[in-house]
Structure prediction request, 131 residues.
Amino acid sequence: MRWLCLLILLFGFITIGHAATFAERVAISKQIESQKDAKDYLYGSFFPAIGSSMNEAMKMCLNRSGASTEKFTLVANISLSGKLIDIDFEPKENNTAACFAKEAGSWSAPPPPWLDGYDALPISMSMNIVP
Prediction:
């Protein structure tokens, strides 16, 4: 019985850490981002470290011919080495979002705090482009 409980607990952590749908990933990231340790890391270390790279990527992506100015959401995990991994975005037809997501894979930040049950810190970014 103890092994069954351990397997159920382990499966729950795997399922939460690797949510199947985009909407689940956004919901999980919002829940985690509301925690003090995660919030302190994101606004004290992560965004300051990648801010100029984010700005340059957005400028470059928007300066392309036919660039979309439609709002988009990006989800990713910040690995324990500080790299963005498992990057995805919606809506899929947004070419600016595709460009931005591709650039995000090259950004680097300080390592995130350890969160029980996660091998990386899930994040989401809603991007509203105002010309």
About this structure: The beta strands are 72-79, 84-90, 120-127.
